[in-house]
């Protein structure tokens, strides 16, 4: 008898819904998805999805500066993908960077995807590590509108300045020019420094460096003064007078010997600006190069068996604060690797810049046990050099001071005083991981008060005072920060803009203003003095910080700036005269005919070289 077989059901099971997480970059998405597991899908918005329109002001001045946001051109496919994924998702989480910019991106995404900004779907983490990411999803929050308003106020202020002054520059100077709040200050600082250099009058001064000997030992000393007082040597006549007082054949007496133990403290871990400065000084990295490598280290690098890992904490910060967990891990590593005597009981805290937000930790490695050498095979050259710098600086900040034995000696004869200073490393401390090559021993012979030494030779030398140095990227960023102008995220784009507009050029790693830059600066100084007023701009930054803290209303901040500024715009429109820019010599001749070449500036302020001798330049060539 035939047996009947039961037919199996062919009904397909519906795939379970996943939680959707939206971040800014694909690299960040890849790292985070690995940590969260199968129940999460992570995709990237690739930055902002909405912004003010490029073709017009986009700010309703008459209606409380209401911004008119539109979808960014070219983001249509990305927005479509985000909407489709959001509709299928069990829940949508917004995981943009943990700062004003990131909060603004999350807010714009909530509008595009029709999410409730008050819903607890915002997650933030200071480092992209498994523990930090998972912990953030345990404590989601609503979008912080104070952060959004602070970013929105900055964006609107910059738009009001740029879209008010730029058309004037187009009309009166050249099409394609622009002006902005922070970039105008940066340009003004560079030009002020250039004028200091131009107006500098060198002053003559002399030094007398000498060699003394005790037995077979020789050591260097320099002229200090006469009769116990320091004395300047303004000219050769003064030098001859001093040398005339000295009996070269008679002994000099050691009248004072001071021995001290001097401690050299480590520096605090990096903030954004100090990282940019040190990378420029030590690695010869431009600011953009530094931030690009830092972004990659933060978002995640594939490091073999561990997969993609975020290697440093968030790289846009003005804080030197370090978490308790990170301090403990560093202390454990230092004890194991270097010994107890190298581990600081109270690590250096560092001085916070005025106006610092302290929203994030300092820039540090996410794990000190991932040493630079252990990661070298996985990192490209820039990533390795920057990671090594960050790792070493952080480790040094958690270590003990270096200790130097110092010796200061005063040498006299006939009321003429020379001084010598010596030092010897007693304990290297933090310098074991973060030296700068300046720690060389300068050992003096064993000297005591009352000893006699002989003069071996004298070397009088003429000098002239030098003008202040032109700004490098590092020193300009430091000056902007010290004056409270701009914030960590603004320095790199500011320096890029003033170079892209050809307001300044880098010559030997130093900024020199161009004629175009001087013209634009003079216009802004004359007609818009508040825009280049350092104190005014710093106070405005402080007001934006108050908006972030919920103390100040963003509309009030914008209005207090714009009302007097708009009057300046009206006055400038009426009074400003058209300016003719001369062609700038390129500094070399044509390869073909030998005629001098000049730089022509076209409609989009992109440069081209043409002959200085009369020729016809068509619009297409410009």
From TrEMBL:
UniProt KW Cytoplasm keyword: no
Domain Topo IA-type catalytic positions: 144-569
GO MF entry, a single one: metal ion binding
Record's keyword annotation contains Magnesium: yes
First-level EC class: isomerase
Site location (Interaction with DNA): 48, 154-155, 158, 163, 170, 316, 501
Interaction with DNA: annotated segments: 178-183
Pfam families for the chain: Topoisom_bac, Toprim
EC number(s) recorded for this UniProt protein: 5.6.2.1
Top-level taxon of the source organism: Bacteria
Active site: 314 (o-(5'-phospho-dna)-tyrosine intermediate)
Keywords for this protein: DNA-binding, Isomerase, Magnesium, Metal-binding, Topoisomerase
Record's catalysed reaction(s): ATP-independent breakage of single-stranded DNA, followed by passage and rejoining
Compositionally skewed regions (Basic residues) per UniProt: 1-16
InterPro entries (UniProt xref): Topo_IA, Topo_IA_2, Topo_IA_AS, Topo_IA_cen, Topo_IA_cen_sub1, Topo_IA_cen_sub2, Topo_IA_cen_sub3, Topo_IA_core_domain
Region (Disordered): 1-20
Toprim domain segment(s): 18-128
Purpose of the protein: Releases the supercoiling and torsional tension of DNA, which is introduced during the DNA replication and transcription, by transiently cleaving and rejoining one strand of the DNA duplex. Introduces a single-strand break via transesterification at a target site in duplex DNA. The scissile phosphodiester is attacked by the catalytic tyrosine of the enzyme, resulting in the formation of a DNA-(5'-phosphotyrosyl)-enzyme intermediate and the expulsion of a 3'-OH DNA strand. The free DNA strand then undergoes passage around the unbroken strand, thus removing DNA supercoils.
Annotated HAMAP family: Topoisom_1_prok (MF_00952)
Family: Belongs to the type IA topoisomerase family.
Complex and partners: Monomer.
NCBIfam families hit by this protein: topA_bact (TIGR01051)
Protein name according to UniProt: DNA topoisomerase 1
